Amino acid sequence: MTQIALVTGGTRGIGKSISLALKNAGFLVAANYAGNDDAARKFSDETGIATFKWSVADPDACAQGIKEVEKELGQVDVLVNNAGITRDGFMHKMSVEGWRAVIETNLGSLFYMTQPVLEGMRSRGYGRVINISSINGQAGQMGQTNYSAAKAGVHGFTKSLAQEVARKGITVNTIAPGYINTDMVAAVPEKVLESIIGKIPVGRLGEADEIAEAVLYLSGPNSGFITGSCLSINGGQHMG
Ligand code: NDP
């Protein structure tokens, strides 16, 4: 039977590559996004993948959005918690709004998105949850206390939930990308980016497709013995 995959932030950047890789592998894919309707329309026209607009930082919107996905496509077998934002700034200048937006979008969303799909996965005895973290949640990064804290939280969430649902045939894993060639990294000032690339042993940024390949593997039936793990995909920049 065709499996259903839901990818948050699935219309641009890394999420777009993940949505496409899953579709090409035979999944029926729902791609969620927040507000960029033009990008979502273009993505949907190009790929034929259904798009669904809601903010993953809003618990009620997540519950409602997932209901719509399930009504249109069916119950979710694979959830990829990919949506994320940055609001960079040094701690002493960071606003409460900038703190909360990043924590809620990158970490709160894991609870809001995963809880509504978990009961179905438990009752079917199968599920895959893949959470996208970041090298900066592992190593820390100045100017990103909010983002690093949220992404570090993703690792704790993954390991705890993995233990709770392991006997139910559900795996929960984290992928921690390094610097990947997307709009998010395009926003980094050129000088800073040059210095970042200088610290990547393979000498280049990663590509979104390289993350999507790993998500695809963790989404499949052959990865059932991998749970609570973190796969770092960062060109050797951080090996902790
Ligand atoms: P992009 O900025 O290119 O795309 C972000 C996607 O997330 C968009 O589809 C956006 O929707 C969606 N999104 C943002 N906020 C929300 C929200 N509140 N609700 C629903 N969707 C939302 O990001 P990347 O592809 O670069 O990053 C994807 C993930 O990978 C993020 O979690 C990021 O933290 C992580 N990551 C990225 C790295 C990189 O180098 N790029 C490195 C390490 C981790 P819309 O199009 O509507 O704005």
TrEMBL record:
InterPro entries attached to this UniProt entry: Acetoacetyl-CoA_reductase, KR_dom, NAD(P)-bd_dom_sf, Sc_DH/Rdtase_CS, SDR, SDR_fam
GO biological process entries: monocarboxylic acid metabolic process; poly-hydroxybutyrate biosynthetic process
UniProt xrefs under SMART domains: PKS_KR (SM00822)
Recorded GO CC terms: cytoplasm
Superkingdom: Bacteria
GO molecular function: acetoacetyl-CoA reductase activity
Keyword tags: Oxidoreductase
Limits of the Ketoreductase domain: 3-178
Keyword Manganese: no
SUPFAM superfamilies: NAD(P)-binding Rossmann-fold domains
Family: Belongs to the short-chain dehydrogenases/reductases (SDR) family.
Protein name, per record: Acetoacetyl-CoA reductase
Source organism (scientific name): Thalassospira mesophila
